[in-house]
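Ticket #4471: structure export looks truncated?
Reporter: QA, pipeline team
Priority: medium

Steps to reproduce: submit the single chain below to the structure queue and open the exported record.
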Amino acid sequence: MPTRESVFIVDDDPSMRTSMNRLLREHGFATTLFDSPAALLDHANFEKAICIVLDINLDGSSGLDLRKKLTDAGVTAPVIYVTGNDSTANRAAAIASGCIAYLVKPFTAQSLIESVERAGVM
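Actual output as written to the record:
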């Protein structure tokens, strides 16, 4: 079984990608950054992902829909959702999709680190 070695981050906001990248690297995690669902799907090397940090609202697309595509394609990497638009419907859909964490922006650094660490032992 390949070694999971990178946290995949999918967020269309460059400042959020940069912030999460910096934070995770400061805590010893390698990261791979994606600015869109298409970029992630084109990468396709999912067995290397410790987890996928996935924004729910992706510039005209849905992180929830992307998660379904990944699941349908057999991707088993744990998912951590992040969102700036918390709602009961999004939270319920995220939990139903089997995510390991649902973080509302602005979330604490510690909540992201703890979620990624939890994913790393799965």
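Status: closed, not a bug. The export was complete when the record was re-opened. Leaving a note from the reviewer for reference: The chain is about 40% helix and 25% strand.
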